[in-house]
């Protein structure tokens, strides 16, 4: 069986960039596929007011983005068919840069 790995990581600049405004027309386009992860997290937690809560929010967005990208991948009929037929397995992982820990995203 073949594996597809979607791996997010801590302190992700792209996920932090979701909160910024850009004058460059291309960066927001690149970030569009992740915007829903931010929306999902912001809908389920209160606005963070401390640095610790901001870091926690960022981590939640990083994890949610892994889940979201798996969902995006499953919209491709060939991938969906391969997964449903057991030819391909998709796995979400998260790498914590500060601890060198790799964990499964469920």
Furnish the topology, listing elements before pairings.
Layout: E1 2-9, H1 13-17, H2 26-31, H3 35-44, H4 51-73, H5 77-84, E2 88-96, E3 101-105
Structure in words:
This protein is an alpha+beta fold and 106 residues long. It has a single domain (2-105), classed as Carbonic anhydrase (Beta-carbonic Anhydrase, Chain A), CATH 3.40.1050.10. The chain has five helices and three strands. It has a three-stranded mixed sheet with strand order 1-2-3, covered by helices on one side. A hairpin with a 4-residue loop joins β2 and β3 (101-105). It is globular. 16% of the residues are buried.
Q: Approximately what portion of the residues adopt beta-strand conformation?
A: 15-25%
User: In this structure, how is the largest beta sheet organized?
Assistant: 3 strands, mixed
Low-confidence sequence ranges: none
Structural class of the helices, strands and pairings?
alpha+beta
Number of domains: 1
Give the helix tally.
Answer: 5
CATH topology descriptor: Beta-carbonic Anhydrase, Chain A
In N-to-C order, the SSE pattern is EHHHHHEE
Fill in the keyword field for this structure:
single chain; 106 residues; alpha+beta; Beta-carbonic Anhydrase, Chain A; three-stranded mixed sheet; 5 helices; globular
Concise description?
The protein is an alpha+beta fold.
């Amino acid at each position: 069986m073949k594996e597809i790995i979607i791996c997010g990581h801590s302190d992700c600049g792209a996920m932090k960039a979701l909160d910024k405004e850009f004058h460059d027309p291309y960066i927001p386009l690149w970030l569009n596929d992740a915007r829903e992860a931010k929306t999902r997290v912001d809908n389920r937690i209160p606005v963070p007011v401390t640095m610790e809560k901001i870091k926690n929010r960022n981590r939640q967005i990083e994890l949610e983005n892994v889940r979201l990208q798996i969902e995006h991948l499953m919209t491709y009929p060939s991938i969906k068919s391969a997964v449903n037929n057991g030819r391909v397995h998709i796995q979400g992982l998260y790498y914590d840069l500060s601890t060198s820990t790799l964990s499964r995203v469920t």
